[in-house]
TrEMBL record, chain A:
Protein name (Swiss-Prot/TrEMBL): Large ribosomal subunit protein bL21m
Pfam families according to UniProt: Ribosomal_L21p (PF00829)
Skewed-composition ranges (Polar residues): 43-52
Compositionally skewed regions (Low complexity) per UniProt: 53-72
GO molecular function: structural constituent of ribosome
GO CC aspect terms: mitochondrial large ribosomal subunit
Coiled coil: none
Automatic annotation (TrEMBL), chain B:
Segments crossing the lipid bilayer: none
Matches recorded under SUPFAM superfamilies: Thioredoxin-like
Protein name (database record): Large ribosomal subunit protein mL43
A family per Pfam: L51_S25_CI-B8
Places the protein is found: Mitochondrion
Species this chain originates from: Coniochaeta ligniaria NRRL 30616
TrEMBL record, chain C:
GO terms, biological process: translation
Keywords assigned by UniProt, alphabetized: Mitochondrion, Ribonucleoprotein, Ribosomal protein
Functional note: Component of the mitochondrial ribosome (mitoribosome), a dedicated translation machinery responsible for the synthesis of mitochondrial genome-encoded proteins, including at least some of the essential transmembrane subunits of the mitochondrial respiratory chain. The mitoribosomes are attached to the mitochondrial inner membrane and translation products are cotranslationally integrated into the membrane.
Family according to the record: Belongs to the universal ribosomal protein uL30 family.
MF term (GO), any: structural constituent of ribosome
Protein name listed in UniProt: Large ribosomal subunit protein uL30m
Cell compartment(s), UniProt: Mitochondrion
Organism phylogeny: Eukaryota, Fungi, Dikarya, Ascomycota, Pezizomycotina
Organism: Coniochaeta ligniaria NRRL 30616
Signal sequence range: none
């Protein structure tokens, strides 16, 4: 009886004792990022912060900060601030029935339409099935007869593209046999990559009048 | 005039509109006596209550399987199931395996070369030499 | 104070020892490596020695290694708009 009790206590303790401190655990990444975001501006000089904000397109956000929505500018995008060709032609593009969009995720382009399944070439950390992602970097946005090209990116207020995380898939185990000539020794190397699968749930073109801020 | 059935059948695309987790049920089998079940027993006692509470859409079943290694079985909406043997694993490793089963789609693993799978018709249509301006020779 | 931003664009393979020495003293070991040095005749001379191999800009302040890397990395291109309910097991 006492041995069973001791064993159950030991089993209960195992996760606690083997754990690294909570702030090192990957599951707390979200929490960890939010704190770092608050801390960053105070520790860096103002000039850097300004430079980073100005060169928003060139400065790459690391993945943790990408999980939280970026702070959007407060000034609304009025039709006057847009290129006249966009204000005239975008409604025509939006009026056509189906659209495609070339979204960039970590710099790689994927040409998708609404309802497509997208298997990313990596496992996205920190997301679980059912999460809704907003894809905000696109180079082209098109319909049957019109194409909006970005330079290099399309203004992210001109479209709404959302994806749902479906889960994680894996490939069949790869076996690579390492063998040298005239030597009988063989070694097998195994690898199995994991991929995050998304479903593009929505591709919407904004209307110039009621563009979201 | 005969009645003709609609040819277009709507295909289910998970995530368009509603998202449904593909894993519907998880079985956890353990053995009270065997040492290979030690981590699994710790998992069931300490981690599983929280794991189950976080997934109301999955049915959880815990049952003993004496004199056998501990296994987790995931049942999926497409009727398939996946089994993972978790012998001699720590509770956290078992949690990783449970998460793997939760995120799987139940399909057989396939090697694909193209990232995008689409069932939509082409947006731009198919190019035809008989339409449009034509080429001047 | 301004700085030279020096990026090694072409390899120094097959070049004389003195040219390679100039690269070494600039701190350039591999292609597309970036170093920062203050604007000073000493560094200007070294750059002149290897001017065919490097690309030079003048900047106001030196960037750290992290910042140089961040410049090169593309944007993630997504953020989580709505997290799924449940699914995350806190430990």
């Amino acid at each position: 009886m006492s041995r069973a009790l001791l064993r159950s206590v030991l089993e209960l303790r195992t996760p606690v004792t083997r754990l690294p401190p909570t702030f090192l655990l990957p599951i707390r990444a979200r929490f960890f990022n939010q704190t770092s975001q608050i801390v960053e501006p105070t520790s860096t000089p103002e000039s850097i912060v300004n430079a980073v904000q100005q060169s928003q397109q060139t400065s790459a956000t690391s993945l943790p900060s990408s999980l939280t929505p970026p702070q959007q500018e407060t000034n609304p995008l009025s039709p006057a601030s847009l290129d006249p060709s966009i204000t005239t032609l975008l409604p025509l593009l939006a009026a056509q029935p189906s659209h495609y969009i070339t979204v960039h995720i970590h710099g790689r382009p994927y040409l998708v339409t609404a309802g497509d399944q997208l298997r990313l070439p990596f496992k996205m950390p920190g997301v679980v099935p059912g999460d809704i992602l907003r894809l905000n970097r696109a180079t082209t946005l098109g319909s049957r007869d019109f194409t909006l090209k970005g330079a290099p990116y399309v203004d992210e207020r001109l479209f709404e593209c959302r994806a749902v995380v479906l889960g994680t898939e894996a490939e069949p185990m790869r076996v690579m046999v390492k063998k040298k000539r005239r030597c009988r020794r063989k070694k097998s190397v195994f690898s199995k990559h994991k991929y995050t699968v998304l479903r593009i749930s929505e591709v919407k073109v904004a209307r110039v009048g009621e563009m979201e801020v | 005039m005969t009645v003709v059935a609609l040819k277009q059948i709507s295909t289910a695309r998970n995530g368009v509109g509603a998202f449904i987790l593909q894993c519907k049920k998880m079985d956890f089998h353990y053995c009270d006596w065997a040492g290979s079940s030690k981590g699994m027993n710790g998992f069931i006692k300490s981690v599983l209550p929280r794991f189950a509470a976080a997934h109301p859409q999955i049915e959880f079943q815990v049952s003993p399987r004496p004199s056998k290694h501990p296994v987790i079985i995931g049942h999926y909406i497409n009727g398939k199931k996946k089994t993972i043997c978790v012998r001699n694993m720590e509770p956290l490793q078992v949690l990783k395996k449970a998460e793997l089963l939760r995120e799987a789609s139940g399909e057989k693993l396939k090697r694909t070369t193209k990232p995008v799978t689409s069932s939509n018709p082409s947006v731009r249509g198919i190019w035809s030499p008989f339409h449009g301006e034509g080429l001047k020779v | 104070m301004s700085y030279f931003r020096i990026t090694l664009h072409r390899s120094a393979i097959g070049l004389p020892e003195r040219t390679r020495g100039a690269l070494a003293s600039l701190g350039l070991r591999r292609r597309s490596q970036t170093v920062f040095h203050p604007v000073h005749p000493q560094f200007a001379g070294m750059i002149m020695k290897v001017k065919e191999l490097v690309r030079v800009e003048e900047v106001d302040r030196p960037l750290s290694k992290k910042e140089v890397k961040a410049e090169r990395q593309p944007d993630a291109g997504f953020y989580v708009e709505k997290a799924a309910e449940g699914g995350r097991v806190g430990l």
